[in-house]
């Protein structure tokens, strides 16, 4: 019984195979019954055409490869464009407002807000400068700030390095933290601390590296009103200091140093300066000490 069942199975498989081969042959014959121009072929020509299918299949493969290649190229272009769009969007998202210093002791307190306004920014507040210092900001230059204060941040690491240098350089950047305070005299000439989107750096002055460099001082042409300051901004004469001696902006992802021009052909009329004020004399603590001494002298005269 087992042998008969196996034989039946073999016969069934053979019949199925014959049917499949027959259907395939029939379809192949029908599809090969026409030439390229669509004319009916005879039996022998059809058979020859059947065996001539390989070149047709080969050309079909080549066409398929071309189509796939075109699709890959198109997809690559689309992906590159989308990546470019995403990159631009990410850059816009990353750019945030920050505190930055205008490196020029040419501005009075009355002029300071207009300098920032010319750069689409506002005078930085004391709290904003403290927050900036905590993020690593360092510039050894007074800047008029909100509420008639002149301030600048000093990092302890840089201050420690200065203490190892010559005696004359130990106090050039004040003490670690936020230096300065309230100044009663609005006509003192300082730089300006602004809060807003920091202007782009001049590529010709940026030097990317791994080590920090010391700050440099520059002088910029003085102007009085907002329109003049806007003109200075357009001409690139409002020199913006780097966030620290290691990078341009708080949000920069590369270490860099920024080359600050040492001179800007200052055409300011010197007659507007009534007297030279030493940096030490700009310290509010010194001013308070002088006032106390004057009061003591007056009291001694009365006695």
From TrEMBL:
InterPro entries: C-type_lectin-like/link_sf, CTDL_fold, Link_dom. GO terms for molecular function: hyaluronic acid binding. Keywords: Disulfide bond, Membrane, Transmembrane, Transmembrane helix. Signal peptide: none annotated. The keyword Disulfide bond applies. The chain crosses the membrane at residues 12-30. It holds the Pfam family Xlink. Residues 89-196 form the Link domain. GO terms for biological process: cell adhesion. Residues 289-303 have a biased composition (Acidic residues). Residues 276-303 are annotated as: Disordered. This is Link domain-containing protein.
